[in-house]
Amino acid sequence: MINDNLPVAKKLGAAGVHLGQDDLNMAEARALLGPDAIIGISAHNVEEALLAEQQGADYLGVGAMYPTGSKDDVSVIGPEALKKIVQAVKIPVVGIGGITLKTYNDIRKSRCSRLCYDQLYFRG
Asked: Are 86 and 63 in contact (CB under 8 A)?
């Protein structure tokens, strides 16, 4: 999977791409990568999630759950927003952003498909 860069995903023959709200739209991404590519979309609220699902996204990346040092331009939406999104869509939802071992259980309760630990908290 390649983050935010369709040309690189295409050139490398990657399994797919993850796109943010300001990246290329789903129809263009699907046309460029083909019907078998995995395309994920970032969503921050139910409206964005439903639109991404309607347009054919394979999964959603939803966050940030908590403040994170991996990006300095994120809005924190928290576990309650994640839970609402999970309940609204049928495609897999991945909780992202600032998730640590201490916050894992709060995110797990949302019933999201997967979650991503914040790598900055796990450096040796």
From this structure: no
Q: What is the separation, in whole angstroms, between the first and last Cα of the chain?
A: 25
User: Model confidence over 48-101: pLDDT tens digits?
Assistant: 999 999 999 999 999 999 887 776 777 899 999 999 999 999 999 999 888 888
Domains of the chain are 2-122 (3.20.20.70)
8 Å CB contact between 68 and 120? yes
Q: Which two tokens stand for residue 122?
A: 């796990």
| Alpha-carbon Rg for the chain in angstroms | 14
- The label of the residue with tokens 């995995």 reads 38
CA count, 13 A, side-chain hemisphere, 104: 8
Yes or no: say if 111 and 83 are a contact pair by the CB < 8 Å rule: yes
Q: In what order do the strands lie in the sheet with 2-3?
A: 2-3, 16-19, 38-43, 59-62, 93-99, 114-117
pTM attached to this predicted model: 0.88
Report the alpha-carbon distance of residue 55 to residue 69 in Å, rounded: 31
